[in-house]
Amino acid sequence: MKEHQLPIRRACQIVKLSRAAFYRTPQGPMERDRDVVEALLRVVEEHPRWGFWKCYDRLRLLGHRWNHKRVYRVYCELRLNVPRRAKRKVPHRLRQPLAAPAVLNGTWALDFMHDALYGGRRFRTLNVLDEGNRQGLGIDIGTSIPSARVVRLMERLIEVYGRPAAVRVDNGPELTAQAFVDWCAQQDIELRYIQPGKPDQNAYIERFNRSYREEVLSAYVFESLEQVRALTDEWLQTYNEERPHDSLGRVPPLTFMPRPNRPVESGYRVST
Questions:
Q1: Residues 221, 224, 230, CA angle at the centre, nearest 5°?
Q2: How many CA atoms lie within 13 A of 187 on its CB side?
Q3: What is the mean pLDDT of residues 237-241?
Q4: Looking at beta carbons, which pairs linking 183-191 to residues 24 or more positions away fall under 8 Å?
Q5: Is 272 helix (H, G, I), strand (E, B) or coil?
């Protein structure tokens, strides 16, 4: 207006625009529907599998009286009408302190690893560690290790070493399966889940996994699972009885804290 030396009132009269419209900051459609957007996103976040009408009915039950046409327009602008894959949610986990217990069988740590044979066949390993003395208790090896097999391995280890007070695990499907959760409850074993995406909260077994990876899995080319099992048995015995451990005063786990019970079968790998 200063360019043409016209007062704002006169300029608005010329273009037939109210002064209120001149001073008001224009709002986009999403800005005008901010309340609808926020309420709709909250419902979708809580119930990602619901379609439009369930979301709309839920908004009505929450006391919102917006017209369904307005809600559907916002629903489409947010691209919620596009088929979407809902990510599986992990229950909220509290951070558990990683304090090494001063006794054996205080806390066992479990974790999975993956590798492949020379021919491309994939296999998995389930590693079990006693955090008290960092002893590798057992490594189960197979192409598939479901929750039932995890339970069998744990039962065999308990026969050999005794029952732990707690187990520290991540949020993998085998370790969050109801069969494993129920078994731990029956055995009076506390389940300590680490937070998703925080492997450092299970640092003891992650360090064990690194040693196993570098000294066995990445050091050899395997043609069969039996070769993997044989070398794993040999390495696990060396790890527990001969290999110096920096955090244990540079002595092996069984020298740092001897364990009265020892596997009576060949090696340390407990078969299931």
A1: 85
A2: 21
A3: 92
A4: 183/151, 183/154, 187/158, 187/163, 188/163, 189/163, 189/164, 189/165, 190/165, 190/166, 191/166, 191/167
A5: coil
Please give the structure tokens belonging to residue 224: 């069969």
Largest CA distance in the chain: 101
Q: Could you tell me the two tokens for 110?
A: 């479990």
Q: What span, in angstroms and rounded, lies between the C-alpha atoms of 125 and 229?
A: 10
Distance CA 201, CA 95 (A): 8
Q: Which residue has the tokens 């019970």?
A: 261
- Cα separation of the two ends of the chain: 86
Write down the mean pLDDT value for the chain. 85
For tokens 């990510």, the residue is 87
How high is the pLDDT of residue 81? Answer: 83
Q: Is the pTM of this model over 0.85?
A: no
> Percentage of residues in the chain with pLDDT exceeding 90?
52
For 4, half-sphere exposure in the C-beta direction (CA atoms, 13 angstrom radius) is 7
C-alpha 153/C-alpha 73 separation (Å) is 55
pLDDT at residue 71, rounded to an integer: 92
pLDDT at 101: 63
For the segment 210-219, the average pLDDT, to the nearest whole number, is 92
What value, to the nearest 5°, has the Cα angle with vertex 178 and ends 134 and 168? 15
Give SS3 for 122: strand
- Residues 6 or more apart from 175 whose CB is under 8 A from it? 110, 147, 150, 169, 193
> Across the chain, where does the E strand assignment appear?
107-116, 122-130, 135-142, 166-169, 190-193
Q: Which residues contact residue 87 at a Cβ distance below 8 angstroms, ignoring those fewer than 6 apart?
A: 48
134 — alpha (psi -120 to 50), left (phi > 0) or beta?
A: left
Residues in CB range of 82: below 8 A, 6 or more apart:
none
Amino acid residing at 263: P
